[in-house]
């Protein structure tokens, strides 16, 4: 009913930042501040604050056309934040950036979280893993799950997995591991064995003891967590199979919040 009022509460960074490259950083952000309705007497203060927050002070007088992709992304974030909105929507904020720039933008997102709600839209699941506090998974336009990553993993996990890396592999390793109570399956890749065990059973002590007793040369023993990619595939696969509905279908209706 009040679209203009709603827009004032939102800062938006699309996948391709809406920049006028023939302007300097200061000119562009001043222009954005004016069209977003910041009072003239407040605009210089808002400009200085957002330039400092995005570490853009050193390039404030440079043409946007001459900035690196990382700095352009910072300018895009600055235009979304200049009116200090309580809600920030970011669409694929690290696409096309190099590894160093990705780390910098992720840290900026973490720093911005807490004072405002941040909704991060991404198809890059490690991105969500790196910065998101809560996750919303959408399949075919429908929300199929909404929760923290740990809770989603706990609900969907059907077994435990342990990675066992050995210095030496004997012909009977798989048979000896399968003989342990609670072990469901063993898959070998080189000298690493992925051991699947019953849900709720931590067999690391037993696996380590067997490796030491048989002189296999234990190099590494660790739990294998369910990744966000695993969660996504499990949910969307089950959603696409009518006879196996998702156990989380229809749960939350909220947005995703990025936070440290």
Can you tag this structure with a few keywords?
260 residues, elongated, 2 domains, alpha/beta, Rossmann fold, 3-stranded parallel β-sheet, single chain, 4-stranded antiparallel β-sheet
SS content category: alpha/beta
- Percentage of residues in helical conformation: 25-40%
CATH topology of the largest domain: Rossmann fold
**Strand percent estimate:** 15-25%
Quick take:
This protein is α/β, with parallel strands linked by helices. The protein contains ten helices and nine strands.
Describe the overall structure.
The protein is α/β, with parallel strands linked by helices and 260 residues long. The chain has two domains: 3-132, Rossmann fold (3-Layer(aba) Sandwich), CATH 3.40.50.300; 157-226, YebC, transcriptional regulation domain (Alpha-Beta Plaits, 2-Layer Sandwich), CATH 3.30.70.980. Helix content is 38%, strand content 20%. It has ten helices and nine strands. It has helices at residues 3-8, 25-35, 43-53, 69-81, 99-112, 125-131, 149-156, 173-178, 204-213, 228-239; strands at residues 10-13, 87-91, 117-121, 135-139, 142-147, 159-166, 183-189, 192-198, 218-223. The strands form three sheets. The chain has a four-stranded antiparallel β-sheet with strand order 7-8-6-9. Strands 1-2-3 form a three-stranded parallel β-sheet. Strands 4-5 form a two-stranded antiparallel sheet. Helix 5 links the parallel strand 2 (87-91) and strand 3. Helix 2 packs across helix 3 (43-53), helix 4 runs parallel beside helix 5 and helix 7 packs across helix 10 (228-239). The protein is elongated. The protein starts with a helix and ends in a 21-residue tail after the last helix. Residues 242-260 have low confidence and may be disordered.
């Amino acid at each position: 009913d009040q679209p203009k009022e709603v827009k004032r509460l939102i800062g938006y960074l699309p996948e391709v930042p809406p920049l006028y490259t023939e302007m300097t950083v200061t000119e562009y952000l001043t222009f954005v501040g004016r069209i977003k309705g910041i009072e003239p007497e407040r605009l210089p203060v808002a400009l200085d604050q957002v330039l400092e927050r995005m570490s853009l002070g050193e390039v404030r007088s440079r043409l946007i056309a001459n900035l690196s992709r990382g700095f352009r992304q910072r300018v895009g974030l600055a235009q979304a934040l200049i009116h200090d909105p309580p809600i920030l929507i970011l669409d694929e904020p690290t696409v096309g950036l190099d590894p160093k720039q990705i780390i910098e933008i992720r840290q900026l997102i973490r720093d911005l979280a807490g004072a405002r709600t941040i909704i991060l839209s991404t198809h890059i699941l490690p991105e969500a893993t790196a910065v998101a506090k809560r996750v919303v998974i959408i399949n075919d336009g429908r929300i199929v799950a909404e929760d923290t990553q740990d809770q989603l993993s706990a609900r969907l996990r059907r077994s435990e997995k342990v990675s066992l890396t050995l210095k030496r592999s004997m012909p009977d390793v798989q048979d000896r591991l399968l003989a342990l109570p609670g072990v469901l399956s063993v898959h070998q890749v080189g000298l690493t064995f992925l051991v699947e065990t019953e849900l709720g059973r931590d067999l690391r002590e037993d696996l380590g003891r067997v490796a030491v007793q048989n002189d296999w040369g234990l190099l590494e023993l660790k739990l294998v967590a369910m990744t966000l990619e695993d969660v996504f595939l499990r949910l969307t696969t089950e959603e696409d199979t009518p006879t196996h509905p998702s156990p989380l279908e229809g749960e939350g209706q909220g947005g995703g919040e990025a936070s440290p």
